[in-house]
Write a structure and sequence with these properties.
Strand content: over 45%
Number of helices: 5
Oligomer: single chain
Distance between the termini: 38 Å
Number of strands: 42
Structural class: mainly beta
Shape: globular
CATH topology: Maltoporin, Chain A
């Protein structure tokens, strides 16, 4: 990278009190079943009264600090899943995004993970609300939005899996406190709290293709406050993405190198209030498996939050994100024996600023009221060189702008009876898109710097009113029925508005005229528990109006606006608003514990369909790109003698999905088996062995316009150790 990048953090609080409390228990205790597998039936949805007043969690006189406000009681009305630290540790790849794949219906735009995918393809979504690679589920780390300020993708290498304590997923849009972007739901990552004394954790592993991973975490109590440092490093020679039968002399391993760190400091202000500060950084360098396919991504983040858990509870957060991204694109010859550079996006800087406040006044033991607001600004631009001749770029382009959103919400929940909960709320947002421009100029001749075109786009603004309502009813001692209806929205990213991109021979132009996406949805579900068996199910129907998708407009060869030359092996696309995407489906979860064994299974069926405008008749009625109909996961855990030594096996299936909006390039279904075994030598030291894609199944990740097929996640073996000192 041409500028020093250090990822930004945001980590401030973390750990819901009940989870933090669980961590302080004897480490020899048998792992919680809901940590081993996806578990939708959590405390959020179980029968029970309104939670007790929020106070610091104390276990044997150890106070857990650094926690956010408790989960709102209204969340019992929604489909909630949790992935605990034990399940994260047992993910064979050690990657957060792959741990999330255990959730029914979770997906990224491509099946590759953050070792080989282009970072711009790593947006997250749920329930088939796709269309392009931007995130339609809002992912937060300790409450701070983690989507890239410019592009909306998620920089997963910046997260330290060793420091993530819990992942909590709320499916369905319209969450008042989450704000814009939570169309398909929210994914909340929380880091560990500080629970007295000191904690030292370290892990090191070596894997196939000369891969190395290392993690460290140091937590230290400082008086009544505390400090946590975490860091991670990963590198590998990488696998060759193109399938073996199509490879040429240009194809090589997709190397990667990634580094990140985080600092978090918590200090009390008084008995009920504390300040939580975080600083985090990362650098992520990858290659796509041939020359001129390098990319790098990184940044620095900082945040500060004040949390008060007295009678009048409140939380106030402010954060800063600095990001820089760069990528190069190469055109590979049909025989894959030569490659030439066609685009160099050498500098794509962006800044994210934001704040969020929430107040919970006392309203009685059977109710909860939340009043809050937030503001977020993104600023960014793409600087690029294109139209290469004899390996020399002839033209340059600068394009970018600014977006702002500011909103306020009110949400209330009422435990009408011990068995019946009502919840609902509304939100009003103001948005603006400003300072948009695109300038193209000569780099070489006839006059360097001579202006070719200058487009200054008019400022735009508007308002969005959204909200949600829901209920939870304990129909029987072990059965809870729940339902919800919601509205949500998302503003186009600067990437969608202004940055063109290429994938192989295909080129996609930006569109400065995009309008916000809006979702309407309903769901009905149940949670049932009996002895050691838990079942959960949800049926849903969503309509995503003005869905932003990459729409095919023409076939190369030719010169096309916004992207330049496209060869005969590629197609020309532009980001456009569809009329809508309709998504109908079901989500099922089951967990079962017997003796030393734990079993889990989840399944999602998503029937998504594009409704195109008159100009998009060719794709009307087709399935959105990269959205499969079927998702299925299963896991088996064996932990004898109630200890931490044992084996976890994970099975994943994803149905076929189309690469393109025209549904002509089918990525066949994929099945894989991962496993992790750990042996605890003593209380402080354990060794582990892991395998990803045990039988080396060919998992297809993409098909280019020229028919070139890429794969994801080949067979990978790991051996390593972990040290944990308290």
């Amino acid at each position: 990278m041409k500028k020093t990048l250090l990822l930004a953090g945001i980590a401030w609080a973390a750990t819901y009190p009940q989870i933090a409390a669980a961590q302080t228990q004897d480490q020899e205790a048998e792992p919680d079943l809901c940590q081993l597998v996806d578990c939708s039936v959590q405390d959020d949805n179980r029968r029970g009264d309104v939670p007790e007043a929020i106070t610091p969690v104390t276990i044997d006189d150890i106070v857990v600090i650094g926690a956010p406000l408790d989960n709102p009681i209204g969340d019992r009305a929604y489909a909630i899943s949790n992935i605990g630290s034990f399940a994260i540790d047992n993910e064979a790849s050690g990657r957060i995004e792959n741990a999330l794949r255990n959730l029914p219906g979770f997906q990224q735009f491509r099946r590759s993970d953050s070792r080989s995918a282009n970072p711009t393809s790593q947006g997250v979504t749920l329930r088939g609300l796709g269309g392009n690679a931007s995130s339609r589920a809002l992912l937060t780390l300790d409450g701070v939005p983690q989507a890239d300020p410019f592009g909306g993708w998620v920089s997963f290498p910046g997260f330290d899996a060793l420091a993530i304590d819990n992942i909590r997923v709320r499916r369905g849009g319209g969450t008042g406190s989450a704000g814009p972007g939570a169309l398909a739901g929210t994914i909340d990552l929380t880091t560990r709290g500080i629970s007295g004394g000191s904690r030292y954790d370290a892990a090191l592993a070596y894997g196939s293709r000369n891969s190395v991973e290392g993690n460290v975490e140091i937590a230290q109590q400082l008086g009544e406050g505390g400090l946590i440092f975490s860091g991670q490093y990963a590198r590998g020679d990488g696998f060759i993405p193109v399938i073996e039968s199509q490879r040429g002399s240009v194809d090589r391993g997709a190397e990667y190198e990634q580094f990140g760190f985080g600092l978090r400091f918590v200090a009390p202000i008084n008995a009920d209030t504390e300040v939580q500060t975080s600083f985090r950084g990362f650098i992520d360098r990858r290659e796509r498996g041939f020359a001129f396919s390098e990319n790098s991504n990184g940044g620095v983040d900082a945040s500060v939050r004040i949390v008060s858990k007295g009678e009048w509870q409140y939380s106030a957060l402010a954060y800063l994100q600095l990001r820089e991204f760069e990528t190069s694109f190469g055109a590979v010859a049909a025989d894959r024996n030569s490659v030439r550079q066609v685009l160099d996006q050498f500098d794509v800087p962006s800044t994210g600023l934001g704040a969020h406040v929430e107040l919970r006044p006392p309203v009685g033991d059977n109710a909860e009221l939340r009043i809050g607001g937030d503001w977020r600004r993104t600023i960014g631009e793409t600087n690029e060189q294109f139209f290469f001749q004899n390996a020399i770029p002839q033209r340059g382009r600068i394009a970018g702008g600014q977006t702002d959103t500011v909103g306020a919400y009110v949400e209330g929940s009422w435990q009408v009876t011990p068995d019946f909960l009502l919840t609902g709320g509304g939100r009003l947002d103001y948005w603006s898109i400003s300072d948009g421009l695109r300038r193209e100029f000569e780099l070489i001749s006839p006059v360097p710097g001579a202006l070719r075109s200058l487009d200054i786009f008019p400022d735009r603004d508007g308002t969005e009113a959204t909200g949600r309502v829901g209920f939870a009813y304990n129909a029987a001692s072990l059965l809870t029925l729940r339902g919800a209806a919601y509205l949500g929205w998302r503003l186009p990213t600067l990437n969608e508005l202004y940055r063109p991109f290429r994938v192989g021979a295909d080129a996609t132009a930006a569109n400065e005229n995009l309008t916000p996406e809006r979702v309407r949805g309903v769901e009905l579900g149940f949670d049932w528990e009996i002895a050691t068996l838990s079942l959960s199910g949800t049926a849903f129907y969503n309509v995503l109006d003005n869905a932003i998708a990459n729409v095919t407009l023409d076939q190369g060869p030719g010169l096309f606006p916004g992207v330049g030359f496209v060869s005969g092996a590629g197609v020309f696309r532009q980001r456009q608003n569809l009329d809508e995407i309709e998504s109908l489906g079901v989500e099922l979860d089951a967990v079962f514990d017997v003796g030393n064994f734990s079993f889990g299974a989840s399944y999602a069926y998503v029937d998504a369909e594009v409704v195109g405008t008159a100009a998009q008749a060719a794709i009307d009625g087709l399935r959105p790109a990269q959205v499969p109909r079927h998702f299925a996961n299963g896991s088996i855990g064996w932990y004898p003698s109630g200890g931490n030594s044992g084996v976890t096996t994970t099975l994943r299936y994803v149905g076929g999905q189309f690469e393109d909006d025209g549904n002509t390039r089918l990525l066949r279904d994929a099945f894989s088996i991962d496993a992790r075994g750990v042996y605890e030598i003593n209380d402080d030291l354990s060794i582990e062995a892991r395998v990803e894609n045990l039988f080396d199944e060919e998992i297809l990740a993409g098909i280019s316009g020229g028919g070139v097929i890429e794969r994801a996640r080949p067979q990978t073996f790991w051996i390593g150790f972990r040290i944990a000192l308290d």
